[in-house]
Amino acid sequence: MPNHLAHETSPYLLQHADNPVDWWPWSPEAFAEARERGVPVLLSVGYSSCHWCHVMAHESFEDELTAAYLNEHFVNVKVDREERPDVDAVYMEAVQAATGQGGWPMTVFLTPDAEPFYFGTYFPPEPRHGMPSFMQVLEGVRTAWVGRRDEVAEVAKKIVRDLAGRQLDYGRAGVPGPEELAQALLGLTRDYDSRHGGFGGAPKFPPSMVVEFLLRHHARTGAEGALQMAADTCEAMARGGIYDQLGGGFARYSVDRAWVVPHFEKMLYDNALLCRAYAHLWRSTGSGLARRVALETADFMVRELRTREGGFASALDADSDDGTGKHVEGAYYAWTAAELREVLGDEDAGTAMAYFGVTEEGTFEHGKSVLQLPQDGPVVEAARMASIRERLLAARASRPAPGRDDKVVAAWNGLAIAALAECGAYFDRPDLVERATEAADLLVRVHFDAASGRARLARTSKDGVVGGNDGVLEDYGDVAEGFLALAAVTGEGVWLEFAGFLADLILDQFTAEDGTLYDTAHDAEQLIRRPQDPTDNAAPAGWTAAAGALLSYAAHTGSEAHRTAAERALGVVHALGPRAPRFIGWGLAVAEALLDGPREIAVVGPADDAALHRLHRTALLGTAPGAVVAVGEPGGDEFPLLADRPLVGGRPAAYVCRHFVCAAPTGDDRALARELGAVRS
Question: Which CATH architecture has domain 11-164?
Answer without folding.
Answer: 3-Layer(aba) Sandwich (3.40)
